[in-house]
Amino acid sequence: MNCKTRSKFTFVAALVLVAALAVGLVPALAQGKITFTAWSTNEGQSRDVIMAAVDAYSADTGAEIEDVSYPYNEYLNQVLLQARGGNISGVAQLDIAWLAPLAQMGVLKDLGSVAEGVGYTDAALSSGQYEGVQYGLPWTTASIGMVANTQLLEAAGITELPTTIEEFEAALEALKAYDPDVIPYAAMTDTAQLKDIIPWIWTFGGTIIDDEGNVVLDDGAVQAVDWYASLLERGLIAADMDRFDARQLFAQGRVGFYEDAILARSVAAGNEADQALVDGIVSLPRPVLNEGDTPQSLLWGHLLVVFDDDNAEAAAEFAKFLSSDQDTALTYFDALGLPPTTADTLNSDTVQNDEYVKTWSEQVTATARTNPLWPYAESARMESTLNEMVQAVLTGDMSAEDAMAQARDELNDLIG
Amino acid sequence: MTVGQYEMASMAKSRRQIVSDKLVLYGALLVISLFAFFPIYWMLVTSLTPAKEVFAFPPRLFPSSLTLDYYRDFFNKPELIRFFRNSVLVSSVTAVGSIIISSYAAYSFSKFRYWGRKSLMFLVLSAQMFPQALLLIALYLMFDSLGLLNSYWAVILAFTTFTLPLCIWMLKSYFDGIPNDLIEAAKVDGANQFQIIHRVLLPIAAPALVSTGLFAFIRGWNDFIYALTLAGPEKMTLPPGLVLFYTGEFQTAWPNLMAASLIVSLPIVVGFLIMQRYIVGGVTAGAVKG
Q: Do A199 and A286 meet the contact criterion of CB atoms below 8 Å apart?
């Protein structure tokens, strides 16, 4: 490096350092604002809809709202870390699965009095409760349910949607016979998403955790896992299937049935599925073991929680507006197909005229239950353990009986 | 066979051998190139393919139609441009800071002998071996107590913590190759340590400084988790910014993500092209001791 080059190098280095200082190295402190932390405020279509509602609220009330976004897959870790450091305030969007870890930290405001008299449905309210305390206001409440491509079903000669497991198996066989390249049921078989076995365990009469908090995983669980493995063996479900693949394949018309959140229809449309396919998507209650049994599904939805600090009252009012104002909820429903959470809005013509959502709400979400692992501090590890045991059965490494016995021991240890 | 015939046969055999060797060489290079460039090709094709065709089955090597929409979309998002500027700023400061600090540290490790020197060197390197997530929580709490969260400094300091160990080792191995006689000669001429490092050592070490700086820049440029956690929404850099904009709860905008990834790779590629002369020299520095 000669003198000239060295001088240039020193100059560039100095310039970079000065620029760093000039751009501002001290964090700006926001005072008196309501911070709204969410992932949906940065995702495609939902961004515009939510921000319009936020702007409307600001205009009406004069409240200053600052939105902060994190990617969905990193969201919980970021919120937990910030809550741990006391660096988060205002309102935050939560998946209902994430309420327990945040509630356990003792940073959330009890919204029981805020939720009173608003008209949220009982199912919706229950999704925001932890140990009997209303920590979350329900923003959208639905379930992980089953959807079908009726175009494909009709082509395979299936005219009635299956209601029992026997009929379901017959439909899957018919789809396979119609086109061997079709995946009759894109059930989750990827280890990370095998929690979808839970409603099947309930369907077979199994219990995962009893009322006393003991892990049971009884004969019903063994039967359900055995049945799941038999579907794989018969080629009615596919190995290593995750939700992302299932959605893509469903949008391409190569899947008969699969399970997803209520957004399944708009996800298919977003994945450029043919309009005829989108129009032919129906939701259906999970098939039951015996006629008359209750169809099972996992509750799914989004909550709004409020961090308990000086500005919590104002933040709670904003959360109530976002989750219960009818015009806002209907706009949200129109744009994204996410069901509202108040009885009045659910009974409005806009919602009732949408057969897909109506069926989903009345026949699937109505009987949905929360994931029994969520209330525990070690829920993530418990879920992984259960998933790994189910995977071991699917790969033929363990019998269902041994796998459930081992899962029972390990889950009991994690509960402590 | 006459001598002439033998020589001709021998030459023909030798020519065949050369041709055959070349065929093997070029064949191997072709396979390696395909292996190396196919992901880039796939990124490029995906970034130009309309969303409807991206997941076509069976996959297509050549899309039936092309679009530049996803590139336009990137430049139409002011937030992404802001993230881009943030990336340039924090990666540049990280690179410059890493060079400055590691130059002094490497000089010390290379040219001085003192008690605990080797242990200290390995201690520095061992910092590289901790899981990032573990360091992240410690850094988060530390920056929180210092009031540095959501600032450029938080990201720069975090990046520098994980670039320094390797930078120090890279420069040390280069300094080891510089004869001590040069330093002794400078001392005889009356130079102090400051003058020795700035007027003797660093000018000679230009290639190593450039390659070390580029290494630090790339580490900073590509980091995701530190930038996401420590920078806050305003100071966020491109990797978390792209994930924030193009991945969601239900869908990932692959063509947008690929287009944006190609755009953000450009500064690194251009940097390599401009500085490749130094980089080759810097990377091989210390490989052979003179």
A: yes
